[in-house]
Amino acid sequence: MLSCFALRSCAICLPYDWLKTVVTPGGGLGYDFGPGGPYAVPLTEITFGVQDTLLPVTRQYFADSRAPIATTELGSGTLRFQQHAFALVPEPFEIPSSAYDDGTVRRLHGIAGGAGWAAPIVPADPAFRNVAWGTIRPVQYRVRVAAGASKTVALGICEGGKNKGSRLFDLRVEGAALRTIDPVEEGRKNQPYVFLFAAEDVNRDGELAIEVHASPNSPDPNVYLNAFWIFPAQTNPDPQAILRGELSAQAEVYFDCGRELQAQKPSPRVDALLADFDSAERPALIAIHTPRSLTFDAAAGMLRNEGRPYLMSRPAAISATQKDKQWLLELPRGTRHAELIVLHGQVPGAATPAFPDLEAARRRSAAWWPSTDLIPFGKIKLADAGLQYVLEANLRNQYQVAEIIDGRPQFQPGPSVYRGLFTFDLLLMGEPLATLGDTATVRRFIESVLPYQQANGQIRVMQPHPQLSETALFVYTLVWHAQLTNNREWLARHFDKIEKGMAWLQAARAQTLADPTAKNHGLMPGGFLDGGISGTISDFSSVMFAFLGLEKAIAAARWLDQPQQAEAWQRLLDEFMASFQAAARRDLRRDRLGNWYLPVTVADTATTAPPQRGQWGLLVPLRYGRCFQARGTFLDSVITANLNLLQHTLQQGLVVDTGWLKNGVWSWFGGMHALTLIWRRDYAGAHAMMYALANHANPLGVWVEEQHLRSAGTGTTGDISNAEASAYFVNLALHLLMYERENHVELLAGVPPQWYRAGAHLALREALTSFGTVSVAVEISPAGNTGAVQVDSRRGPQAGDLILTLHGLQQQGFHDSRGKPLPATMKIPWGKPMRIVLRKP
């Protein structure tokens, strides 16, 4: 059941939404995610049904994949119904902010949390049920006090998912000694605890810092906090009385963590379900599975949460039954059409809100989504309708999973487990979105990482273990964006951040130079790689990303007339490269088939892990580094060897066993792998992998992060409605039509020849490159014997050729308007519209 949830769930929330609503496998509404136990599964599901019968799903789809109105068809024979799930688009629509500051308490860097995650096994304050959580990052609050004030702080912890020893927390309260705890220290899940601290505003900034970090020794790097209380200094409140909720009213501050936005939003956020039943053979009902504390208002026929309207229906429910976490609301007999809404946010208390016209709301949603200027729809047209469906669903999904944090857009991997900032997403998501024209959003996204640069220059987002690629990734993406948009002034404004980052990179490498016999001598110290590789290791990936950062830093220095800095960084790059090549030659290994390959781990002698495990770390940098472009070099031979290794691990068209899930496939790895094949001009391999990836999407066009092959089971891991996989699929579609190389842009080079069939239409509109903006379109007549190619462009500040590839059209038998054979490629002048008329002899 859990795997089914993860595989088939999909975000249907609004762009940048603070409420990450998903549609569930049965077509219901899903809410309330927690920090593990289980991952990626909504703890609350709301759906229509019929009495005494669980009807199977027969079909699920979006009528228009640009508009997330999910239709699910259920049942068979006379017992059939369909339901439509969607979020109501407010009038007017305003981009929401995922920030919390109530004047006394503010939360830093995001608001991930959930209601009802824990279930205390003893009488406890209701706040222990809810949770604020951080995935591979701390939970951080600030509480305003008089400058220099002392207070007594109580932290409430209740573990709802993991067993003893799984997590170790460092509880940090300003002015008090750090305390490391196991939240299941007595071996019982859902046992609440209260920890007291004598706090002081040591830095006299008028705020007390309250934070929960993963201990460096914690097996699980994810943390949470259920509640905190602030009492006057030198009081000695009884922890057990706090735990039971007896002192919450007496506290100067009582804070129920994880529900910040729900408490702060000025107006409700509304989701809807509409159901149409083929017959009234059995009574219709509403099924709710939730850990929330709900009550049934019989007079209004609605469910309330903490006294406020939560679920309303039309017709109203006539009765309700509850057993454990399950509610069943019975609708009047004869109901053939039913509607419900679910309200989150600041909902009025006693008053009953007016029930909206949901048919009108559905029409508004269907019209609003394709026309919104928040998402760059209409830029890419593929000749395959199935791939176009997947493309548009995933372009939209990136903006739904994103949110506004600290005033800036933050694109993130998913709506549940990995709802947070990951530096890799600057590149993974920034590249396709900026190329499609959303440069302002991507620039602000890059700027969102600036607060994470430490005094020593390191970018440090992931905790407790450092991911050493973060700094180089930030530098690369910052300079790349400045070059793409020709924004020298913006680059100059942030050049000091580049200098600090490169100073840290040089210092990090220097740590490895003390011992000439060390296996990582001249490379990088140990860090956390992720993606199938656990623990702290020295790896080749962080060095390859260092190459990217250094190359872009050198380019920035030259552009900003800093030749001495450029020369110094070039020397560092040369030294890095020499050390890398020496270590790589030493560490080359053979797989079980005798093929040479380079493991991602330095001096890897493991015999149990499959050789493809963690290879993402070596593939991702390849397309971006100038040092990887030359053919016939040692680096080129390593790239060829590792791609050959991966080719021998394909199952169902995708690499198996490369991430965390044994015998699983990793969706975004498939997109990244296919892009790498395009870079190597293995177009047939890229086409096959693109279709394999699309065939592993769920019916709504998106993926869970990792999933088992059917032969291995039904397991999954990682986030649902995975936006990183979305970004790679969009990028893959984009690069089939246009690929920017070191000194030129190629158009149509990656298009499968079979797409040039009768009635075909494919296009790329206003794509941004370093050399200019380009549009290309191909139309084939319904009869398939004529057509046209149209190219329009505007030259940019950098010099580079524009090359149109006609080889695929040539293969399909097309000639030019004079009947002469088409050339395989032709150079197109920038700024001059070009139209080529096609016909078959």
The major sheet is characterized as: 8 strands, antiparallel
Q: Major sheet: order of its strands?
A: 5-6-7-21-28-25-24-23
Uncertain stretches: none
* CATH architecture designation of the domain at 100-263: Sandwich
The N- and C-terminal alpha carbons lie at a distance of: 57 Å
> What class do helices, strands and sheet pairing give?
alpha+beta
Strand runs, count: 48
Overall geometry comes to globular
What fold name goes in the CATH topology slot of the domain at 100-263? Answer: Jelly Rolls
Mean pLDDT figure:
95
**Helical residue percent band:** 25-40%
Number of helical elements: 19
What percentage of the residues does DSSP assign to strands (E)? 25-35%
Rg value: 28 Å
CATH class of the domain at 100-263: Mainly Beta
Task: Summarize this structure briefly.
The protein is of the alpha+beta class.
